[in-house]
Specification:
This protein is mainly β. It has one helix at 58-67, and strands at 6-12, 17-20, 26-39, 45-57, 73-86, 92-105. It is 7% helix and 43% strand. 15% of the residues are buried.
Length: 153
């Protein structure tokens, strides 16, 4: 059994570019940066950034071009694909990219008028800008015994 599935959650490094194939199919491309932070053996905090090339087709390419902007948060679900071609000098070139099967736009910053990521993102990228009401988080005690009657399913 084989599986080629990728999930990327990151920020756009530039505005998406929209093109059309000779047959009229829309194709978009953009790059996403993801960060990784860890502590090395000596306990020092380390950070690394990876850049991912994304290709998106059809209606999703149009949506990406219209609503995604540099710095905006995006979730991409897709598959890895490696393409090869000969450049102008006859050299063999290869690139690996993510072909998006599904994209999910990040939250709109407060005060935006439809451009996702066009303004400075909020401190919490997952916070809802229109929901200022804080929901109480239930406290769960691990010391209590749980019976099957307590389970909601």
């Amino acid at each position: 059994m084989n599986l080629n599935k990728v999930f990327i959650l990151g920020r756009l490094t530039a505005d998406p570019q929209l093109r059309s194939t000779p047959s009229g199919q829309q194709v978009g491309s953009f790059a996403v940066a993801t960060n990784r932070v860890w502590n090395d053996k000596s306990g020092q905090k380390q950070a690394a950034t990876e850049y991912h090339s994304i290709v998106v087709w059809g209606r999703q390419a149009e949506v990406a071009s219209k609503f995604l902007r540099k710095g905006g948060l995006v979730l991409v679900e897709g598959r890895m694909q490696t393409r090869s071609w000969d450049d102008a000098q006859g050299q063999k070139r290869k690139t690996t990219e993510i072909v998006a099967e599904r994209i999910q736009l990040g939250p709109r910053p407060t005060g935006s008028q439809g451009n996702f990521g066009a303004e400075t993102p909020t401190a919490d990228p997952f916070a809802s800008p229109t929901d200022d009401k804080k929901e109480d988080i239930p406290i769960i005690s691990v010391d209590e015994e749980t019976s099957k009657d307590d389970l909601p399913f």
